[in-house]
Amino acid sequence: MRVAFFSTKKYDRESFQRWLPKFSHQVSFFEAKLDKHSAILAQGHDAVCAFVNDQLDEGTLKNLSSLGIKLIALRCAGYNQVDLQAAKELKLTIVRVPAYSPEAVAEHAFALILTLSRKTHKAYNRVRESNFSLEGLTGCNIHGKTIGVIGTGAIGRAFCRIAKGFGVRILAYDIFENEEMKAMGVEYCNLDKLFAESKIISLHCPLTPETHHIINKKSLQKIQDGCMLINTSRGGLIETKSVISALKKGKIGFLGIDVYEQEEDLFFENLSEQILQDEQIARLMTFPNVLITGHQAFLTREALDQIAETTLENITAFEKNEKLINEVKM
Ligand code: NAD
Q1: Which of 174, 188, 195, 213 for a ligand 1 pocket mutation test, highest count of atoms within 8 Å of Cβ?
Q2: From CA 241, how far away is CA 239, in angstroms rounded?
């Protein structure tokens, strides 16, 4: 198939180039983000390949459909950026990569936890300036704490397996309980109990209308003082203004985020020569106990290879009219 890739970076092109010889697709790599204006670039192709911050709203989907596009192959797990109702009406097929190295994201969540709890980001900068003072670097153990995990899908489960090694109590909330997790000692409970008893809370559920702002003014009143909040899932799970207020009051003791509510206009780009217009992320960046990474939890060589292979397999299955095991349906 002729496939137009949007929002591509050097690392995307490299991983897909490694896998393309095994398939017979012809691809065009575009750096442009997909929206209703850039959709025209897909002219002459049969499918588009899109990523997390591409705008697959009704306008974009209509424009793609009018160009003869039949398939949207998402090279990511989340699909909250797609208007599924519009896609259904336009008879556009959506496929995704449901799991690609869940360990990559789970390990990144732990990188955030360990950096915040042991202040290694501050220590790194200090030592580079020959400042070997330990003042202000007192951390806290993970061992013996209670960790609350919201969402025990592929990534949440990988996170729990790692957490187990630290000797922690794990509380979990999910609409479906997982037997493997229960056998491992994970205690499922309601959200109120998880909020009340966890010293660290890590978000691993998808962004849906039910989970939008699951962390909000009300839920933040239920958490322990000084709780650590980790979000490697989707920015919209957190109501940023309430989190800023909770950080100012010390209610949240540490915040580690790889995703941000308004990340579309920021992440994946080098904006270092520009004036930052987003007041909320600018405020977050001033807190000494906040660590932000720019949606890089997925970015390991293993995960990129898996994304490329599964995406190209999804496209091949559609082309050959085979069963689409990774289709996203309404
Ligand atoms: P998954 O589908 O395997 O698991 C999601 C889990 O969330 C499921 O167990 C599901 O039952 C649960 N869930 C759904 N609705 C819920 C609700 N209302 N309350 C509680 N739990 C609910 O997905 P996954 O592969 O584990 O990925 C989780 C999320 O991580 C994705 O949706 C995506 O947004 C995010 N993600 C981020 C990155 C990154 O680079 N930062 C990379 C991949 C995925």
Answers
A1: 174
A2: 6
Helix-, strand-, coil-residue percentages of the chain, each rounded to 5: 40, 15, 45
Q: Give, to the nearest 10 degrees, the angle between helix 102-118 and helix 120-128.
A: 60
Per-residue pLDDT of the chain (330 residues; tens, 9 = 90+): 999 999 999 999 999 999 999 999 999 999 999 999 999 999 999 999 999 999 999 999 999 999 999 999 999 988 999 999 999 999 999 999 998 899 999 999 999 999 999 999 999 999 999 999 999 999 999 999 999 999 999 999 999 999 999 999 999 999 999 999 999 999 999 999 999 999 999 999 999 999 999 999 999 999 999 999 999 999 999 999 999 999 999 999 999 999 999 998 899 999 999 999 999 999 999 999 999 999 999 999 999 999 999 999 999 999 999 999 999 987
Instruction: Fill in the DSSP letter of residue 214.
Output: S
Whether 51 lines ligand 1, by a CB cut-off of 6 Å, is: no
List the domains of the chain with CATH numbers.
2-100+300-328 (3.40.50.720), 102-292 (3.40.50.720)
Tell me the best of 233, 234, 267, 295 to mutate to test the pocket of ligand 1, counting ligand atoms within 8 Å of each CB and taking the most.
233
* CA 252 from centre of chain: 21
255 within ligand 1 shell (Cβ under 6 A)? no
The two tokens of residue 210 are 């039910």
Ligand 1 within 6 A of 151 CB?
yes
